[in-house]
Each structure stands twice: as C-alpha cells, then as structure tokens.
Write a structure and sequence with these properties.
Helices cover 25% and strands 29% of the residues. It has six helices and twelve strands. The protein has a seven-stranded mixed β-sheet with strand order 1-2-3-7-6-5-4, sandwiched between helices. A five-stranded antiparallel β-sheet has the order 11-10-9-8-12. Helix 1 packs parallel to helix 5, helix 3 crosses helix 5 and helix 3 crosses helix 6. The chain binds biotin.
C-alpha cells in the first residue's frame, strides 16, 4: 500500500509550521518513539505511522496488538499548552469519529466503539520539555482496527472500520483524520473541552446505561461534565469520575 504521506502533510503543514510525516516499516511503539525523540530534544510536530509495532501500548499498562495491513497505528506529536488538560482524550475521540463515520460511538474516556465492540483506542502521553512554562510535548497515539481480527481472549471480538467503510484502507483513514485531528488539538488548546461537549454527547456509548467501574462502583452513566468527567449515578449519589486509572464497562 502507498501511504498518502505527502497529501497528509499538505493538509496540515499550514496549520503546524515545521510539520513532518514519517512512515516506519517497524518500531516498538509510535508513542514510545516520539517520547524518546522528545527526551532527546526533538519536539517538531510529527505524524509518525508504523506499519508494524512490536510493543504497541494501550492504556492502563496494557498492550496494543495489531496486525500489519489490518490496522492503522500512528501517533501525532506536537507541543501543546492548554489551560486545562481535562477532556483531551474525549476531544480527540470526537475529532476522529467525526472524520470517519457517523456510527462510531465513544466510550469514555478514549475508546472508539461500533455497536459495543472496540474499533480503536487513543493513548495520550505528554512530556515536559525545557522549563515548566513551556508547552508540553503531547503525543496522541491512535490504533484503529481496519479488518476484523480474532478475539484473542477478549470477551467481545473487536470491530473493524471496513464494516462501516469497506472501501477505506489505512492510508485513506489516515488522510481523513490528519487535518481534523490537528484542528481539534488546536481548538482544544485554545478553548478546552467546552467546544467538544455536545459532539461527545451525541456519540456517548455509555449514556443512560448501567456501568461498572474497575474500583467496584456501579451505577448509571449520565454523560460527561463540562471538563469531561464521566457522571455516574450511584447508590451514594452522583459521582464524577475523572481518574485515568479507572476503567468502566457497561454492566
Ligand atoms: C487503548 O485502547 O488502551 C489505547 C490504544 C492505543 C494504541 C495506539 S497504536 C499507536 C500508538 N502507539 C502505541 O504504542 N499505542 C498507540
């Protein structure tokens, strides 16, 4: 497959001076690679795609498995200085979903779902560069299943983008997302989560559903607050879940 590296670059460079697009045949993890570069002082805005990841990472210390050709794995790294970081992964989810398909739902805080199956995930990491007043180098890693793959011990088999967009390959998916993703990050930097709240709500996969949190709490999800916290109505009243350490699933 030919990657639309130049076309993606052309759509973004005016928004992000110094922007580069790079396609690697193999790397441990695109997030890890951009983090290594940032620590070595290389903080120019970069879209890094890997055809194969040998140590892909997910949230909560989990791994991220993907098969070359059947998935899209990439990270966008750029300096970012929002006043408030809360809700960033939700804003990214909204941008990705809007760029791809109306039927993609968002499962708080950073999963892309189709009909209750996982289509993809978002892993955001940041690193301080220079003094604390400087923008943090922000790495937005996205993994998307393009074609169905075996459940591999998962309770539900994953979803695949081809179910929704049979004609779209990994390169086309990347091209569709690149510019909206950058625009979303820049809007988030300026205005925070507020501008994404309504769009998140229309795609909220957990809205009004019984949920169980990994800390044992159960209740009913009632959307997200102004800063992107998940609102759960529990026996003890309404709880705002913000912790990145908590996972949530429909009960
Ligand atoms: C999750 O669902 O827990 C997040 C998965 C994020 C996977 C992507 S693939 C590209 C980037 N590099 C990684 O190692 N992880 C992210």
């Amino acid at each position: 497959m030919r990657w639309p590296a130049e076309a993606s670059w052309e759509r973004v460079v005016a928004l992000l001076p110094g922007f580069t697009v790079e396609i690697l045949p193999e790397v441990d993890s695109t997030n890890t690679e951009l983090m290594r570069r940032a620590r070595a002082g290389r903080t120019e805005p970069t879209l890094l795609v890997a055809e194969r990841q040998t140590a892909g990472r997910g949230r909560l210390g989990r791994g991220w498995q993907s098969a070359p050709g059947d998935s899209l794995t990439f990270s966008l790294g750029l300096p970012l200085a929002p006043q408030d970081w809360s809700g960033l992964s939700l804003a990214v989810g909204v941008a990705v979903a809007d760029a791809l398909h109306a039927d993609i739902r968002l499962k708080w805080p950073n999963d892309l779902w189709v009909a209750d199956r996982k289509l993809g995930g978002i892993l955001i990491e940041t690193a301080a560069v220079g003094d604390p007043a400087q923008p943090r180098f922000t790495i937005v890693g996205i993994g998307l299943n393009l074609a169905a793959r075996p459940a591999e011990g998962l309770s539900t088999p994953p979803a695949a983008l081809r179910e929704l967009l049979p004609e779209v390959d990994a390169g086309e998916a990347l091209l569709r997302m690149a510019e909206p993703l950058v625009r979303a990050l820049q809007a988030f930097e300026q205005f925070g989560f507020a501008g994404f709240h309504a769009r998140f709500s229309t795609r909220d996969a957990l809205a009004d559903r019984a949920v169980a949190l990994s800390d044992g709490t159960t209740g009913t999800a009632h959307g997200v607050g102004e800063q992107g916290a998940l609102l759960v109505h529990t026996a003890a009243g309404m709880v705002a879940v913000t912790s990145a350490e908590v996972s949530v699933r429909p009960a």
